[in-house]
Design goal:
Length: about 120
């Protein structure tokens, strides 16, 4: 599942982008609106956003609940050789890496592919 954690809550990817900044938008917490952009800090109606370019896949980090226990609100990230969260070019690259290192399709359903914005 692809998306982002924002202020302790998981927002699943909508494959839509903000017309102002070009960043991803997520389902709005305000019922009156369809989407929200965390970069612009604004909510939008559906006609104010556009579909993400089908060729664009955002960079992602791989995360799972601490010790694999889903009731944990904390996440642990796959780390690189320097001990920093490893950033993959996109979700398919991350999935291929995990499959190559012993994960199976069912295992992939238990991890989060957290989108990385250019601000981080």
């Amino acid at each position: 599942m692809s998306g982002i954690f924002h202020e302790g809550r998981w927002y699943e990817s909508t494959d839509m982008v903000c017309r102002r900044c070009g960043g991803p938008v997520y389902a709005s917490d305000i019922p009156e609106y369809s989407y929200q952009c965390f970069h612009c800090d604004e909510d939008f109606y559906s006609f104010e956003v556009e579909e993400q370019d089908a060729l664009y896949l955002p960079p992602v980090m791989v995360a799972r609940p601490v010790h694999g226990i889903t009731i944990n609100s904390e996440l642990e990230y796959l780390l690189d050789e320097c001990g920093e969260p490893r950033i993959f070019q996109n979700q398919p690259e991350a999935e291929a890496f995990l499959l190559k290192h012993g994960f199976n399709g069912e295992d992939l359903e238990q991890v989060y592919f957290e989108e990385v914005s250019g601000d981080e």
